[in-house]
Each structure stands twice: as C-alpha cells, then as structure tokens.
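#struct-pred

JT: dropping the chains for the assembly here, can someone run the whole complex?
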Amino acid sequence: MNILMFYLFASIIVIFSILTVTSRRILRSAVFLLFVLIATAAFYFMLRYTFLAAVQLALYAGGIVVLIIFSILLTSHISERFPQIPWKKAFFSALVAGIGAVLSIAAILQFDFNQQFTDTETAEVPVRDIGLSLMNYGEGGFVLPFEVISILLLAAMFGAIVIAKKKKD
Amino acid sequence: MIEGIPIVHFLVVSTIMFFVGVYGFLVRRNLITILMSIELMLNSVNINFVVFNKYLFPEQLQGHFFTLFIVAVAAAEAAVAIAIIINVYRRFNNINVEEVSNMKH
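RK: done, full complex below.
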C-alpha cells in the first residue's frame, strides 16, 4: 500500500514538474507547480515529518504559489501563450539537463548507502522537541540560525517594500 | 510508512526534479517562470536533505532543520524577487528577459 502511494506521488512529481517547465500558458504552469509542492508535502508525511509537511503546505503551497499567482495576474495577460521555443535551444538545454541527470543518477545508483533505517513503524518527531532544539544553544541546538533567519526575514520584508514602492515625482 | 522503499528511489525522484528545474531555467524567457524553475530546484534539494536525515541518521534532526531554514529563505527570496519583477514591469512594460537589457543609470 505505502509502496503504491510512493510511486503515485513520485509520478505526480515527475509528470507535473515536466509540465511546469513546458506548459505554454503561465497560469497553468503555476498550478502545476502547486501540484508538485503538494506531492512533496505528501513525501514528508510518508517520512513521518508531519511538522515539516505542514510548513511545506502552509509556506510553499499556501504562500509562495499565491504570491506567484498574484504577480502573474499583475504582469501578464491570462489568455496569452508563450511563443514556441526554437528547437535548437530546447535541444541543447535538454541535452545539458539530461547529461547532468544521467551522471547524477549513475553516481547515486553505484554508491552503497549504509541504510540504518530498519524500524517498521517509527514515531514522528514531537513538536515539543523541535521547539526545544530551535531555542537551544547547547549541543544540537539551532538558536543562531533561528536568529539569523529572523533578521533575514525582516530585511527581506523591508527590501520588498522599498523596491516595489512607487517613486514620488 | 516507508518500509520497502529503498533510499535510492527517493533520490532518483529528486534528481529528476532538479534537472527538470535546470531545463526550465535554461529554456524559459519569462522572469516568473524562471523563478518557478528555481523553486523546483530548491524543493528537490529539500527532499534530499529530509530523506538523508530519515534513512541515514534517524535519531538526529539536522536535515529536518536545514529544510525548515531553506523553506524560510525561499519565502524571503520569492518575496524580494517578485518585488523586483513588479518594478521591472513598471519600467519596461514586460518581463521578458531578452527585452529587459538596459539599466537606467
């Protein structure tokens, strides 16, 4: 059952990510990106990282995709279709990506991972543990990156407002 | 939930997703679709981190937190990128990378 679900979500990810980069209508490719992100959240649920899956759904599928769709509606006509890509450019880009993919998959397949995971049913990580290690400054604590991320988010917020603001003149 | 699925299958899926993102980055000309390809690449890297964490070091949480921080950075990056795209649209009236070729000053 779970193996079936894995292949279902894997095929959703592969098919819809290819459709995201090849669709000629921009709003459709944003919706296909949404499907890819939701299938990724399903992977996190399968791996029993439910907090991470919730973050993925709320921030990626909820936040970033809505932001992208808003900016599509502000900057392009919905009925407009992209012109056909010249075959030479498409061919050489596909060649570069294909060579990279083949090399990486060959390297992955011949590497011998010492897989420790043997439990049939592992408990999920409690949110209490996640919160404690985000606030912990000792062994295995992440308080420094947490603070750096908060400053980065503040800077990004100010930057976005200043850049997108209309000039007075 | 993942018994019977080898780690390699997850890694192959995320590799395919990454290189589809690379293809889109090279082929597309609209700034927003390029941003969407970058989101695909970031997402595949996140899957890699989480899967390595779960399969190879299940008692630690490093990959989990790395993914959490990458998601936050991606959100900040998308916000700033879309602000820049809207500014470019206001100045040039389109967001095609081949027609936006001069700076103001």
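JT: nice. The helical segments of chain B are 7-27, 31-56, 62-92. Chain B has one domain: 7-92.
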